[in-house]
Each structure stands twice: as C-alpha cells, then as structure tokens.
Amino acid sequence: MSASQKKQKKAIESINSRLALVMKSGKYCLGYRQTLRTLRSGKSKLVIIASNTPPLRKSEIEYYAMLARIGVHHYTGTNIELGTACGKYFRVCTLSITDPGDSDILRNMAGSEAAAPQS
Amino acid sequence: MGKIMKSGKVVLLLGGRFAGRKAIVVKTYDDGTSEKPYGHALVVGIERYPRKVTKSMAKTKIAKRSKIKPFVKVMNYNHLFPTRYSVDVQFDKNLLNKDAIKDPIKKKKVKFSCRQRLEEKYKTGKSRWFFTRLRF
C-alpha cells in the first residue's frame, strides 16, 4: 500500500478503537433524532456523521453543530461500517458523544476537526 | 458546547400552517411540562410579511405595505429549525404567556401587542433578514 493509504488505514483504525472505548465507558446517542436532541440541549461533545448520509441531513447536522459550537467528525465509512464500529448490528448514520468516558476521542478528533465545522 | 434554543433566536417553522415562516423564540421549555412532555417553545412569528417598499412610493402606500400580521404559537422543538440570527424585540411579557394563547380574547390582545412591537422593529430597518420572506 502507498504511504497515504497506510496512513488512512491507521487513522480509521484509531477512530474505531476510540469509538469502541466510548461505547464501553462513555455515554452516547445513536441516531438522527437523539443526536438532534443532544445538540439542541448542548449536551453533545462530538458528532460523528457517516459518509453516506443524505447531503441535506449532513448539512443540517453541521449547521446545528455550528450553532452549538460542537465538533463534527465525518467518518470515512458508510452507516453500516459506523454501526459495526459501535458494536451494533444495525446501521448508524449519525451519532453523538455526550460523555467520552476513558476515551481521548475528543482531544484527537476535535483538534483535527476544528476547521471542518466552520466550513 | 452551547444551548441552541434561547429566547430572541430566530427560528424557521418546519411544518403546519406556518411552515416556512420565521419566528422569534420568546420562551423555552427545554424539559417540557406535564402536558407537553417534550422540549417546546413559545414563538412569535410573522404570518404575513410586509410587502416590498420603494422610495418612489407615497407615504400612505408605504404605511399600508408595511403592515405585519403576526402569529403566536407553542411549537415542539422538532418542528423548529434554529438559525444563526437573533432579533431583540421586547415583547410584553405579562401579556405573552401560554395561558393567553388558549383564551381567544386574550390571544387577540397578545397578537395586537406583538404586531405593534414587530412593526416598530421593522420601521427601524434593523434585522432586515427576519422581515423578508424565505423563498423556497
């Protein structure tokens, strides 16, 4: 594999492992309705969107997150993969992390995504 | 990590008779009440936007075209879309409350007072975005 591909693969694995830790030790909300609810109340710390969410819904969630100044991470993978990464047997298009627990997902994602929500 | 729904915020109504209209959040009930166990807000919006006005029009014509018809409604958060805009209008707080909306006579009074405040704000020329119709 080329160098950039290797780097991407590593990045994906690290997100997955961090997500697994959040699932175990933290609090999260899976699904569009619940993420909107957490965004409105400001309880969310990070929002993760799958790559194949419809663009209108993606923009809507990004707008809400911009208003609430919450980071958004665009997961490189479809909702099926995001669901698997969460350890669930269903698809997950949007998920919101309200309490990261032992994971350092916020520090790593928020740093790289600080530019993204503003765009 | 801030709360989005605050009083003074402009929201779009997503459904119902007033879908697509802009409204100002007056009071929020984040955790709901016993009758409405969901997050909801009291909003004042514009039912009929003021018409376009140009400099060449007569004063009487301008006055007629600058009328605003408001509505007052209690809406579920899910049916509102918040925007980055906010409008600072002082509504009559003792008039404007949930019970006033239920009683038709009080509701008329409330709407009239809202109308006056909104028209005042419109005449100052600020918050122009709020008073223009959202085209979709």
From TrEMBL, chain A:
Pfam families: Ribosomal_L7Ae
GO MF term list: RNA binding; structural constituent of ribosome
Cross-referenced PROSITE patterns: RIBOSOMAL_L30E_1, RIBOSOMAL_L30E_2
Ribonucleoprotein found in the keyword field: yes
Residues covered by the Ribosomal protein eL8/eL30/eS12/Gadd45 domain: 14-106
Gene Ontology cellular-component annotations: cytosolic large ribosomal subunit
Gene3D superfamilies: 3.30.1330.30
Keywords noted in UniProt: Ribonucleoprotein, Ribosomal protein
SUPFAM superfamilies xrefs: L30e-like (SSF55315)
PANTHER family: RIBOSOMAL PROTEIN L30
Assigned protein family: Belongs to the eukaryotic ribosomal protein eL30 family.
HAMAP family assigned to the protein according to its UniProt record, in alphabetical order: Ribosomal_eL30
Protein name (database record): Large ribosomal subunit protein eL30
TrEMBL record, chain B:
Sample GO molecular function, one term: structural constituent of ribosome
Keyword tRNA-binding belongs to the record: no
UniProt entry keywords in alphabetical sequence: Ribonucleoprotein, Ribosomal protein
Gene3D superfamilies (alphabetical): 2.30.30.770
Gene Ontology CC annotations of this record: ribonucleoprotein complex; ribosome
Domain of life: Eukaryota
Record Pfam families: KOW, Ribosomal_L27e
GO terms of biological process kind: translation
KOW domain ranges (all copies): 8-32
Stretches assigned to coiled coil: none
PANTHER family: 60S RIBOSOMAL PROTEIN L27
Similarity section: Belongs to the eukaryotic ribosomal protein eL27 family.
Name of this chain's protein: 60S ribosomal protein L27
Organism for this UniProt entry: Artemia franciscana (Brine shrimp)
